[in-house]
Amino acid sequence: MGQVATKGRGWQGAVLKLLGGDDFELTVTGTEVVTDHYVRLEFTGGGLLAKRALHPTMWIRMWFDDAGKLHQRGYTLVDADPAADTFGIEFAIHDGIAARWAQHAEVGDTITATVMGSKFTMPGDGVRGWIIAGDPASLPAINSLLDAIEASDCPQTPATLWLEYQHESDKTLPLRARAQDTVHWVAREHDGAALVDAVRSSAVPAADHFGWVALDSVSTRAVAASLRNDYGIPKKSVKAQAYWIPGKSFA
Ligand SMILES: Cc1cc2nc3c(=O)[nH]c(=O)nc-3n(C[C@H](O)[C@H](O)[C@H](O)COP(=O)(O)OP(=O)(O)OC[C@H]3O[C@@H](n4cnc5c(N)ncnc54)[C@H](O)[C@@H]3O)c2cc1C
């Protein structure tokens, strides 16, 4: 881990430092335009993967510069290779500081990331199926979950995927669904309510399933509640995290 710039992070940076968040300098080693609204960058981790153990859905806090002020945003490690300290990061593109940075990134560019707060353990053998709800921002995490299910002792466990799209091209994104999985793409309508309604109206008893939800903040809460109340999945078997805030920058 080299010396990295921490000036300009404000109170969030100070809190993360106090909590012991480690900083790493990432370097861009490759760029790929996946669709008109999705960019993938390759990175070396500046020692990140030597210091931190990998887990499915693992995410980091990247610091993006906006006129001298640094803003942290969560992004997910994709296809990480701990021995080589390399990984990809996939960016859903919208009008935001992080998305703009990704669109203009070039090989050799560097950016600081803090590792703090990412935690997920795969559930055990008792899970009979997965109900997963996400969108292009959480597609990288969903792919890492599907990879982890495939690599587990129960690779046949099916997943039902509820995926929200805003652009036609989102439906062509590289989703790692397997033959036993069911995929529903739902257009984002009524500020996300369309996907919430679709999940609710398809409810079946699923107490032995595991639920994983990462959408905008309002939809995340609503879908997680539906998985508990309408599908009967126990609270401890539902992992939900808001990935973005509609109409507002993420802190
Ligand atoms: C744990 C975690 C992991 C994440 N992993 C990824 C990842 O791997 N890839 C990825 O693309 N995103 C990921 N996200 C989401 C990403 O951090 C947010 O989308 C973030 O707000 C983007 O920052 P920004 O500076 O581009 O936009 P912001 O400044 O935060 O927002 C600007 C505007 O864009 C809108 N906006 C923000 N995000 C989205 C979106 N996804 N879709 C549509 N509109 C949006 C906001 O409502 C606002 O109006 C993750 C979030 C978390 C919490």
UniProtKB/TrEMBL annotation:
Q: Identify the residues that the record assigns to the FAD-binding FR-type domain, covering every copy.
A: 21-123
Q: Which GO terms describe its molecular function?
A: oxidoreductase activity
- The signal peptide, as residue positions, is none
SUPFAM superfamilies xrefs: Riboflavin synthase domain-like
The protein's matches in PANTHER family, at most eight in alphabetical order, are given as: FERRIC REDUCTASE, NADPH-DEPENDENT, NADPH-DEPENDENT FERRIC-CHELATE REDUCTASE
- Going by the entry's taxonomy, the superkingdom of the source organism is recorded as Bacteria
Task: Name the chain's protein.
Answer: FAD-binding FR-type domain-containing protein
